[in-house]
Amino acid sequence: MTVDQILKAKGRNVYSIFSNLTVYDALKVMGEKNIGAILIIDDTVLKGILSERDYARKIVLKDKSSKETLVHEIMESNVFTVKLSDNLEDCMQLMSEKRIRHLPVVEDETVVGIISISDVVKAIIETQKDTIQHLNSYISQ
User: Fold this and answer.
1) Are 103 and 118 in contact (CB under 8 A)?
2) Helix, strand, or coil here: 39?
3) Which UniProt keywords are given for this protein, alphabetically ordered (predicted)?
4) Which of 16, 70, 115, 128 is disulfide-compatible with 119, CB 3.0–4.6 A?
5) Up-side HSE of residue 23: CA atoms within 13 Å toward CB?
6) pLDDT tens per residue across span 89-105
7) Cβ count near 130 (within 10 Å)
8) What distance in Å separates the CA atoms of residue 45 and residue 28, rounded to the nearest whole number?
9) What is the mean pLDDT of the chain?
10) Taking the alpha carbons of 128, 134, 137, 139 in that order, is the dihedral positive or negative?
11) Residue 70 region, left (φ>0) first, then alpha (ψ -120 to 50), else beta?
């Protein structure tokens, strides 16, 4: 299974904000959209990603103000990305090795989607269920 297949099932909605907004503004959007991370895109270029973990570790634990701190001050700018053609095993390995939960999907330098660790796990489970069902059908014949 590929990243493209996941996005066809879940949709290609991408929520993003500008890097010059406050962390508070970013959290409001994340809350409204019920998402755990948001992409930072300036002039159609992916600049970073901001997650709830970033907020907890870089604002709350450091006693900073989310209304005064700008997104670019705490966002993760070293963003790992995948392509539509990448397979799930590679995504899972990358997420595990880099200890990340979200992967933007980029084609021709444009963000076309985002997948989370739960998207990957769900897809792998579905693939395994299908394999088990096929094997059971084969054995029953």
Assistant:
1) no
2) strand
3) CBS domain
4) 115
5) 23
6) 999 999 999 999 999 99
7) 11
8) 22
9) 94
10) negative
11) beta
Residue in the block written with tokens 């904000």: 17
pLDDT tens figures, 23-52 = 999 999 999 999 999 999 999 999 999 999
CB contact burial 64-100 (16+ within 10 A = b; e otherwise): eebeebebbebbbeebeebebebebeebeebbeeeeb
Q: What's residue 51's pLDDT?
A: 96
84: enclosing H helix or E strand: none
3-state secondary structure of 108: coil
In 25-133, beta strands by DSSP E: 37-42, 45-51, 102-107, 110-116
The helix/strand/coil state of 78 is coil
